[in-house]
Amino acid sequence: MRRHRCQIASDTSESGSDSDADNTAMRCISCREEYLPRDAGTCKECYVEAGETEEELKREIDDLKAKISFLRFSSPLDHVNSNSTSFTDVVLISSQDAAASPPIPANKAVLVSRSPVFKAMLENEMEESRSGTIKIADVSYDALRTFVYYLYTAEACLDEQMACDLLVMSEKYQVKHLKSYCEKFLVTKLNPENSLMSYAFAHQHNAKHVLDAALSQITENMDKVTKREEYMELVEKDPRLIVEIYEAYLAKQVNTAARGTSTSKTV
Amino acid sequence: MRRHRCQIASDTSESGSDSDADNTAMRCISCREEYLPRDAGTCKECYVEAGETEEELKREIDDLKAKISFLRFSSPLDHVNSNSTSFTDVVLISSQDAAASPPIPANKAVLVSRSPVFKAMLENEMEESRSGTIKIADVSYDALRTFVYYLYTAEACLDEQMACDLLVMSEKYQVKHLKSYCEKFLVTKLNPENSLMSYAFAHQHNAKHVLDAALSQITENMDKVTKREEYMELVEKDPRLIVEIYEAYLAKQVNTAARGTSTSKTV
């Protein structure tokens, strides 16, 4: 059999070859277009198998989605204006908006199950557990409300500010799933303009994914970034961060140069 | 291009043909085996795309699994022998094993969120809500414990008896996700020996998937099934069920006959 394969290889290497092997068009079962042996993908058996695998994966996705919908809680906030009860046993208060905003009802069992910090706080008979009131500092009412909603539903409607606020809270209360959710969102919003501030923010809150993605954006646009006002500010405020950026930039330059040398050697 | 395709078609129809087109073996990118044009599946482009789709689906599955693990509760039963608190506010008691078995702690918020029956019971200040005790009739302690565990985790370790017990409870308390989970399990356990009892059971508890699968098993093995003791018993106890089975069997026979006739006509 190997003989045939070698034959195709030698045929296709002759440009403009008119040999039979080169011109034998087949029809792709998937896109229905004709193609030549050099563009061949799979045999029929593997095509059928791949289709079955895809179907299985889609069924698994449907099952997982049904499970999520079963496990998701309705947030007690949804009950506030309805007649139903939510059996809450604690309230959260944003100390920033304490006077203006209503307390947010919640269940200790939910808070404890989602956050090791709430768990330690509520199980150890601390002030919060006795009073049934948890004061959250440095957060707006809206952010706190969205945070609690996420603990019940694993869902949040984000913009960049909200993603930053929730990332800070998720770091503080060790809600890993929410932190990763915010990081993914912030990575999609990165651009040369916001990369430096995102880098500093990620550094402060141990957001590894944002950090790596922002650093990559910065080192690809060093010329632009170093002309920005935030750059000057950061040089004053936290020069070690700027040093880290230059180190990453240097490493990239050295790598690129090394690749260039090895390529020119092989050519 | 069409010309080439017709050429392949005519070539491959000649058995034992030695023509170039027929013998041009290609190597499948997926299984690495050689194949002939007649066994061609996809072109290279579609192969690559299919691979990307599979990767995307697998990433989605990982994300959904992480979400499930976030949303899943630890069951209060796990806390019983640990030092941690579960902030439960209600207990469930199996009235069948009431004297011998401990009450099972739970959170009203969880019960209400998973079952519309518990919701109505607990939100309407019925006896159960006031006393903080829910008595569950006709169920063993083990089944009740597994039921509560499922409400918290969407997981249960099943055998056939447990699947039947939980199906009955999930029907009574309208926990659809659990009912569907039990039905899927019972369908995998169907065989000609248990098909008739499963059919009767499914009929009694509105388990549509089990009903259809069992009926299909029965009508494929009518000769065996009608010789079984359970058949005689069911004829006595619930003859309408047996009539339904015969009606399904008849419909199948008529269909098969019709297909046979139309096939012989086209031949």
UniProtKB/TrEMBL annotation, chains A, B:
UniProt keyword list: Coiled coil
Name of the protein in question: BTB domain-containing protein
SUPFAM superfamilies the record matches: POZ domain
CDD domains membership: BACK
Biased composition (Polar residues): 9-18
UniProt-annotated stretches for the region Disordered: 1-23
InterPro entries named among the record's database cross-references: BTB/POZ_dom, SKP1/BTB/POZ_sf
PROSITE patterns from the UniProt entry: BTB (PS50097)
Coiled coil residues, start to end: 47-74
Matches recorded under Pfam families: BTB
Pathway assignment: Protein modification; protein ubiquitination
Any single biological process term in GO: protein ubiquitination
Residue span, BTB domain: 88-160
UniProt keyword Coiled coil, yes or no: yes
Domain of life of the organism encoding this protein: Eukaryota
